[in-house]
Amino acid sequence: LPAGAVSLRLRSTRVAAEGINKPLIDRIIRVDHAGEYGANRIYAGQMAVLGRSSVAPIIQQMWNQEKDHLKKFNELMVAYRVRPTVLLPFWNVAGFVLGAGSALLGKKGAMACTVAVEESISDHYNSQIRALIEEDPEKYKELLQIIKQFRDDEREHHDIGLEHDAEAAPAYSVLKMAIQLGCKAAIFLSERI
């Protein structure tokens, strides 16, 4: 691993539930899995529209990281015995439509979507980090490392979006606000259902 990188492998396929706040962990893993699943579908939609454009390699690079994030949360779902949200079929369609729809506005639209979503996700990850630290930073050390690493990846995607003219998208502030409201609703629902 490169210096500063976090090993994202679990030591075993199951985590001892002894002493953990199971409702908190279930909620965190369920919503993060849903979020990474949705992000994968957004990038799939963007690539369906912009896959042959000059921005395709950048979108593909971010999508590859999201695929790694989803793989890790799939593993965590099994390790912590967490059921996925029942809304995955909806997020499948909604994510793809959001990605493709924003890409139909061109590169700037796709990047505006990326900025809005990744800002929402990194803020949400920060809330989870605070909650886990308040609970017991040593007990949740491995999960904290994973979430911190993924939060940093999401911030990087956010910054890439800004570097690629997201703010020049048509009606950027309205688009960003609408997408972020959707993200908040998706987070709220996925934590609970």
Automatic annotation (TrEMBL):
- InterPro entries to which the protein is assigned, alphabetical: Ferritin-like_SF (IPR009078), Ubq_synth_Coq7 (IPR011566)
GO MF terms here are: 3-demethoxyubiquinol 3-hydroxylase activity; metal ion binding
Q: What are the alphabetically sorted keywords of the record?
A: Iron, Membrane, Metal-binding, Monooxygenase, Oxidoreductase, Ubiquinone biosynthesis
| Top-rank taxon | Eukaryota
According to UniProt, this protein's pathway is:
Cofactor biosynthesis; ubiquinone biosynthesis
Question: Which CDD domains does the UniProt entry name for this protein?
Answer: DMQH
Q: Which HAMAP family match?
A: COQ7
Name the chain's protein. COQ7 protein
Q: Which gene encodes it?
A: Coq7
